[in-house]
Design goal:
The chain contains 3 helices and no strands. It is mainly alpha-helical. The chain has one domain. Helix 1 packs antiparallel against helix 2 and helix 2 packs antiparallel against helix 3. The radius of gyration is 11 Å and the shape is globular.
Length: 63
């Protein structure tokens, strides 16, 4: 559980430093794939979800 929490905290810090939509989507995809890999999920699905979340985060100015 601590490993998953640490990954999520690092992911949120990484997404906060993105300046463009492409950076946010790319970093989200990278983090999503990483989290999926650590938790035993499908990395492609994690990348797709992470990219979407990163883009939505940037578009709504929440990160």
């Amino acid at each position: 559980m601590r490993k998953k929490l640490a990954v999520l905290i690092l992911a949120s810090i990484a997404l906060a430093g993105c300046d463009t939509l492409g950076e946010s989507a790319g970093m989200g995809a990278l983090v999503g794939a990483g989290v999926a890999g650590v938790t035993g999920g499908d990395v492609v699905t994690g990348a797709v979800i992470g990219g979407g979340v990163g883009a939505a985060c940037h578009a709504t100015n929440t990160c």
